[in-house]
Amino acid sequence: MQVSTRTVWQVSGGPTNRSYADVFLKHGVALIGPGDPGRWRPERGDDEFEGSFVRRFASEAKTGDIVLLRIGQSKVRAIGLIADDYAYLPQFDDVNGWDLQHGRRVRWFELPQDYDFGSPVFGANPPRFSKLATSEVLDYAHRFVTSPPTHWQTAPLPGLPDPEPSLVEIPDSLRDLVAQVQDLAGLYWNRAEFGDHPTEDELIAHYVVPFLRTLGWPVEQIAIKWRAIDVTVFRSLPRSPSSCHYILEAKRLGQGIEGALAQAQGYLQAIGVQRDIVVTDGIRYRMYQADKEFSPAAYANLGNLKHSALELFARMKQP
Q1: What number of other Cβ atoms are within 10 A of residue 117's Cβ?
Q2: What pLDDT score does 97 carry?
Q3: pLDDT in tens, 37-64
Q4: Which residue, 109, 161, 176, 312, could crosslink 300 as a Cys pair with Cβ 3.0–4.6 Å?
Q5: pLDDT tens digits for 267-316?
Q6: d(CA 88, CA 259)
Q7: Cα–Cα distance for residue pair 119/271, rounded to 1 Å
Q8: What does CATH list as the number for 172-316?
Q9: What pTM value is reported for the model?
């Protein structure tokens, strides 16, 4: 295929406060949602997938086409070549809370730093996936793939992760809370029916504290807004920095819990201790381990429980 005939597409790497671009680069994929409605097939209508994005991603983009990993309205994180046909990949049903099971394999070249066109070349409200027509962008993409280095264009694709099994046997103490999440989570996202998303304080009251209670923590060992920390769990009384067991930083739905770690670390620095951190939107919980430089240690999505959630439950429960 001649480079000049290659179509150029852009795919979103997620909002800046809830990015999933690293997942694309690590596994050699481009992913879009909504994936929960199931595999795309030609006989299925666009209305089943919130518009035409999935159809175009699955059927119009071709092997060998160029794809830009877009960040925001004007930046590119990586440039890739589509390497295979559409596939439905169930292992990506929870990527930072997104259902992104519609996939294409891509050989990516990650740029040393984001390339910024300096103007919103992808539009004021860029879609999750689209064909590009702006001459400035097309010229950049075509020149890039014909300039050295080009070894990445034929490099082996990284392996895909195995699908993670769902948690079949939900602990008895969590069943009511999990059922509530499944009943209400979809409603929270529907502004027409619900209104504004629940606040952090509402999520703490309705989900975080009940979750901690099911894990065995008594109310006197759960503090709200203690020394500005959203939720502090104490291993014993009196409440003091030394008796702090771990802390939780809460964010509103859609804000992206992955960006809350640095804020929580600042709170620990202020009280002078190193403790594990849990970041949450009330439904998703990610724990970072203090003695391993705050690397991710466990994760659970109460709306989409996987077997690995048991590790988070074990780490968060009362000793």
Answers
A1: 15
A2: 82
A3: 999 999 999 999 989 999 999 999 999 9
A4: 312
A5: 999 999 999 999 999 999 999 999 999 999 999 999 999 999 999 999 99
A6: 28
A7: 43
A8: 3.90.1570
A9: 0.81
Query: Which residues of the chain are in CATH 3.90.1570 domains?
Result: 172-316
Look-up of token digits 């852009």: 10
In the CATH hierarchy, which fold is given to the domain comprising 3-154?
ph1033 like fold (3.10.590)
Domain with CATH 3.10.590.10 in the chain: 3-154
